[in-house]
C-alpha cells in the first residue's frame, strides 16, 4: 500500500490554472480542470522547462519552451516535439486538502 501526502490546501489551487510545488524533493505540477485536480511531474519530458510556467487550456498543458502539449488527466503527449508521456500521480481531496500518492 502506498502512502498519501497532503501537499496544499484545495483552495490554494487556482481555478483553470497550473501551479508548481516541491513535494518530498520532487518537482510536481498541479492542475485544476473544471473542479478536479490533477498532478504530473513538473519537468517536461522533452527539455528543461516546467509545466508550471506553461499555459493550461482545459485539460491540455502547453510547454513554455517548444509548445509541446500533454493531456494532464492522462499524462499523454499530444503533439510534436514530445515523444514521451509525462508521469502523472494519483490525487485525492480530503479534509479540504490535496493529497498525492507519489509511489
Ligand atoms: Fe517542453 Fe521542448 S521542453 S516541448
Core attributes:
mainly beta, four-stranded antiparallel sheet, three-stranded antiparallel sheet, binds FE2/S2 (inorganic) cluster
What's a concise summary of this model?
The chain is mostly beta strands and 103 residues long.
Sequence-ordered SSE layout with sheet pairings:
Layout: E1 4-9, E2 18-23, E3 26-33, E4 36-41, E5 55-57, E6 60-62, E7 69-71, E8 88-89, E9 91-94, E10 97-101
Antiparallel strand pairs: 1-10, 2-3, 3-4, 4-8, 5-6, 6-7, 9-10
Bound molecules: FE2/S2 (inorganic) cluster (FES).
Structural commentary:
Helices cover 0% and strands 45% of the residues. The chain is mainly beta and 103 residues long. The chain has a single domain, classed as Rieske Iron-sulfur Protein (3-layer Sandwich), CATH 2.102.10.10. The N and C termini lie close together (9 Å). Bound molecules: FE2/S2 (inorganic) cluster.
Q: Roughly how many Å apart are the termini?
A: 9 Å
What is the CATH architecture term?
A: 3-layer Sandwich
Unreliable stretches (pLDDT < 50, length at least 5) are none
* Broad shape: globular
Q: Biggest sheet, open or closed, and with what strands and sense?
A: 4 strands, antiparallel
- CATH H-level superfamily: Rieske [2Fe-2S] iron-sulphur domain
How many domain modules? 1
Please, what is the average pLDDT? 96
Ligands: FE2/S2 (inorganic) cluster
**Strand order, sheet with most strands:** 2-3-4-8
Assign the CATH class: Mainly Beta
Measured as a percent range, the helix fraction is under 10%
Task: Give the class from helix and strand content and strand pairing.
Answer: mainly beta
Amino acid at each position: 500500500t502506498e502512502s498519501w501526502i497532503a501537499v496544499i490546501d484545495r483552495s490554494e489551487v487556482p481555478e483553470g490554472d497550473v501551479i508548481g510545488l516541491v513535494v518530498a524533493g520532487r518537482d510536481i505540477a498541479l492542475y485544476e480542470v473544471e473542479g478536479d485536480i490533477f498532478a504530473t511531474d513538473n519537468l517536461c519530458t522533452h527539455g528543461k522547462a516546467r509545466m508550471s510556467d506553461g499555459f493550461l487550456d482545459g485539460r491540455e498543458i502547453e510547454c513554455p519552451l517548444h509548445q509541446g502539449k500533454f493531456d494532464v488527466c492522462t499524462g499523454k503527449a499530444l503533439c510534436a516535439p514530445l515523444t514521451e508521456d509525462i508521469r502523472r500521480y494519483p490525487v485525492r481531496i480530503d479534509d479540504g486538502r490535496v493529497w498525492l500518492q507519489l509511489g
